[in-house]
Model the fold of this input.
Amino acid sequence: MRKTMMTALLALVFAASSQAADLGYDPKADPFEQYRHAVAQAEASNKLVLIIAGGDWCRWCHVLNRFVAKNDDVERRLNDTFVVMKVYVGPGNYNELFFSQLLEAYGAPHFWIVSPQREVLASQSTAKLERGRNAYDKASFLAFIDTWRNRIG
Done:
């Protein structure tokens, strides 16, 4: 009985930790295919594409994921303005060819804003949106979104 409970508990802990680590950055995904799909979706829905470079290994990517999930208004405005595309960068796959076609960036997560016409409008570190050592600033994040939302009409 005790062994069965311990096994079940370990299985739950493993399942919870593996789910928590999955932020949507797939090291095996084809970023060019993701890009084609995101641009087509942005064009059809009158949105911009927000490319986010990161990975499950990235502490600030976890902070970003939690921040968006906990703030419905941020998530709603983000998704009303952008087609969000997460591209893995990190050990095992740095996606050099894909990222070489964008403006250079340092660190993760990093944002690029792209028009439906495939024009890279901006490259931005998320550091400008951070508050302290473990959080994002909601007002700064909403202002970032609104700046771009106002450009799509």
